[in-house]
């Protein structure tokens, strides 16, 4: 059962995570096991091979990540809470590995994973969306995606930090900030990490864990992944279950992997995708699930024969000639790998989409309705409605930094009433998506579009479309990504394209060693 007071669980965790160490762990902590295996930057495939060769155990892996977190997290703030049962889960995985024939266990068996703190775990950890208002609440069950991870033998290492309430509390709050954990830091630049799945991206980038889960409503997987030089997959809405996830809007919410490689992301997506009776959208989206999973689409020649659209509207770099030149080189690489680039395309109704307020209207209505439903389903909770959350924030301004950041988005959502305006907004979003992005993809017979991190994430968000981001470069040390986006259910093509691009470029590099000031 989760802690039922504001401070009781936090005391131990703060002791572990707020030790003022000042140097990245790579300077002091061993990154190689006694048997010669290097854990840092290791992929899931690397880790499984090390398990089979008896170079590594799951316990050793968890202990390594614990040390990494203890050293780096006081500054990076990528991890909000550790699972006190992680070592026990690791021991269980090690025992099961010895009892089973090699190659018979799932790909994520014995692999530690961080899940964003809006994803419910029915264990000793809290699920709070970063807010003290939900500290001590008790969830009725694991989130659907967590159930699948546990069935695959993955180890739930802990909860990743996030923008509080998935950045649907206030427009004034910094991206990556929450009341419980403070503000996360990009390990490359020490500035903002972008997006609400900030801790998931920070932690994977800085080798605090190999793989993680994030969630996206509009940009919250794709943006932090690009900004922290990791791979993120934003799945088709409904492909992965949202049951047990603190919501913003069922129209756009989706759960997806954040990892260091496309191959790891494909394995995580393969594990968490599928029907969940507690999320009806997964039934409808199940038609998109490929037989044999997603790992089969990890093809080095995956770009060959693909038609990729280039929409120059989203290439607005201003005077930044470096990024412009970098992306032109990437487009050249994509051509060299056998893809057909259809350049200088336009989404005909792009200005109407830019100016439309339907997404904001729909989010406000849906946030109130869906959050009230989530809170009402909890076994125990200090708050039972959005109105209760607002009241809690006002009562505890120091805890929630109310004076600094406010709660304007919540107040707007609380004022919504009725469904007519919501229905109109939803219909309008569907019309704009159909007449815009979908029409472009169909008429030009595209497999995907290729764009930088930009407003394009909102195009994908509004229509429930999938996207994959891959590291694309570093501008004065700051990472940026490249996005491949497509129509609903196009994850197999997107994985082929993204993997082929990744293998042709191999751009990602770990964060630089630097002194960390607490």
From TrEMBL:
Keyword field contains Cytoplasm: no
Ranges that cross the membrane: 7-29
InterPro entries recorded: Amidase_dom (IPR023631), AS_sf (IPR036928)
Domain Amidase span(s) in chain numbering: 61-454
Protein name, per record: Putative amidase isoform A
A Pfam family of this chain: Amidase
Catalytic activity, EC: 6.3.5.7
Enzyme class, UniProt record, top EC level: ligase
Protein's organism: Glycine soja
Superkingdom of origin organism: Eukaryota
Keywords: Ligase, Membrane, Transmembrane, Transmembrane helix
Source lineage: Eukaryota, Viridiplantae, Streptophyta, Embryophyta, Tracheophyta
A GO molecular function held by the record: glutaminyl-tRNA synthase (glutamine-hydrolyzing) activity
Keyword flag GTP-binding: no
């Amino acid at each position: 059962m989760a802690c039922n007071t504001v401070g009781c669980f936090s005391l131990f965790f703060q002791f572990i995570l707020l030790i003022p160490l000042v140097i990245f762990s790579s300077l002091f902590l061993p990154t190689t096991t006694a048997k010669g295996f290097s854990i840092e930057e290791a992929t899931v495939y690397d880790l499984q091979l090390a398990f089979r060769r008896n170079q590594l155990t799951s316990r050793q892996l968890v202990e390594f990540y614990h040390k990494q977190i203890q050293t780096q997290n006081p500054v990076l703030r990528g991890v909000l809470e550790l699972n006190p049962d992680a070592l026990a889960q690791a021991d269980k995985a090690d025992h099961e590995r010895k009892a089973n024939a090699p190659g018979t266990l799932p790909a994520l068996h014995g692999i530690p994973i961080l899940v964003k703190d809006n994803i419910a775990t029915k264990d000793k950890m809290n699920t709070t969306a970063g807010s003290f208002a939900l500290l001590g609440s008790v969830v009725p069950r694991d989130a659907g995606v967590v159930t699948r991870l546990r069935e695959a033998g993955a180890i739930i290492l802990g909860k990743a930090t996030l923008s509080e309430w998935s950045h649907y509390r206030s427009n004034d709050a910094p991206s990556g900030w929450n009341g419980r954990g403070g503000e996360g830091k990009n390990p490359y630049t020490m500035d903002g990490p972008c997006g609400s799945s900030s801790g998931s991206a920070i932690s994977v980038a800085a080798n605090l864990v190999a793989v993680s889960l994030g969630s996206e409503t509009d940009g919250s997987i794709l943006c932090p992944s690009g900004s922290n030089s990791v791979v993120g997959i934003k799945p088709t809405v409904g492909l992965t279950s949202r049951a047990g996830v603190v919501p913003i809007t069922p129209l756009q919410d989706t759960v997806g992997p954040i990892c260091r490689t496309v191959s790891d992301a494909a394995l995580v997506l393969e594990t968490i995708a599928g029907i969940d009776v507690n999320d009806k959208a997964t039934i409808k989206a199940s038609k998109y699930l490929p037989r044999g999973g997603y790992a089969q689409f990890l093809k080095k020649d995956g770009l060959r024969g693909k038609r990729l659209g280039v929409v120059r509207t989203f290439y607005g770099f201003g005077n930044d000639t470096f990024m412009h030149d970098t992306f032109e080189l990437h487009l050249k690489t994509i051509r060299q790998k056998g893809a057909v680039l259809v350049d200088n395309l336009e989404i005909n109704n792009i200005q109407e989409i830019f100016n439309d307020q339907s997404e904001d209207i729909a989010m406000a209505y849906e946030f109130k309705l869906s959050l009230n439903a989530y809170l009402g389903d909890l076994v125990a909770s200090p708050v039972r409605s959005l109105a209760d959350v607002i009241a809690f924030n006002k009562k505890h301004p120091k805890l929630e930094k109310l004076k600094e950041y406010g709660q304007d988005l919540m107040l707007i959502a609380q004022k919504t009433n009725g469904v007519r305006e919501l229905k109109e907004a939803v219909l309008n979003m569907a019309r704009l998506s159909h007449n815009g992005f979908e029409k472009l993809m169909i008429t030009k017979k595209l497999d995907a579009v290729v764009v930088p991190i930009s407003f394009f994430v909102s195009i994908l968000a509004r229509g429930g479309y999938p996207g994959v981001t891959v590291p694309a470069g570093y501008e004065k040390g700051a990472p940026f990504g490249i996005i491949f986006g497509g129509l609903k259910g196009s994850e197999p093509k997107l994985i082929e394209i993204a993997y082929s691009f990744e293998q042709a470029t191999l751009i990602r590099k770990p964060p630089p060693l630097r002194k960390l000031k607490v």
